[in-house]
Write the structure tokens for this entry.
Amino acid sequence: MKKLLIIDGHSLLWQMYCGMPSRIINENGRAIQGIMGFVGALIKIIKMSEPTNIVVLFDGEHDNFRTDLSTDYKANRDTGEPEDDMFLQLKDIRNALDYMGIKNVEIMEQVEADDVISSYVYRYRKEMKIVISSFDSDFFQLINENVAILRYRGKKTIICDTQYIKNKFGIMPEQYADFKSLTGDYSDNIRGAERIGLKTAAALINQFGCLQGIIINAEKIVKPSVRESILRNKERLQVNYKLIKLDDKAAIPIDLNDLLYIYDGVTTHEVLRGIKILP
């Protein structure tokens, strides 16, 4: 059966760059730990998932509709020296992907890579298996019988499927955007409703079905502090949902037929030598 592997490029780059034990320099004095970690992890992910098609998507450096909705969105993220050093290696990573014959795109439209990944899922999830490699929990909402999230940790890699979401959060994957709207997301600087933690959010969703159902029926919530929190924060919760919800509106940059890939056994060092990072 056909299987599409979608790599969240910046998620993997950040994970590998920060996960390396030290800064690695080649003979020309260039930092290469991000490139080395990214390529090595990518090859292992390919071996694990055995895809027939691959695409790697990177976020572009631009504002998007979410920053228009909320000036707080991702405003907590620093842009200091470590990130600058990491992104200097991005050009070489894309050269490495080209060398391996893997299509890769930096998203230049007023959307994020998340939105393009979601559009791929919506378009192809009925005809093939899809694996998204990312630590971004927003993708949990896309999980179904054909879609899974791979959280790469070497031998401790986790495959997140419907049962994983049910066990971890007590909800169905398609309810995750509603759930996260209530609890908030520290990593994206999205503030949830006060006094609503994971268990309370799951209980509300299981009782009322979705965020809108909770807001409409807020007066029926028995616990006064929770009821008052929903009523007090209902406008912000609706904005949260717009920030978190993924759909199929973003354009797909590369057609599925152009994403065919067969792993040929290439190693990390062969790739780095091929793009002249190592001698």
Remarks:
- The first strand starts at residue 3 and ends at 8.
- The mean pLDDT is 92.
- The radius of gyration is 20 Å.
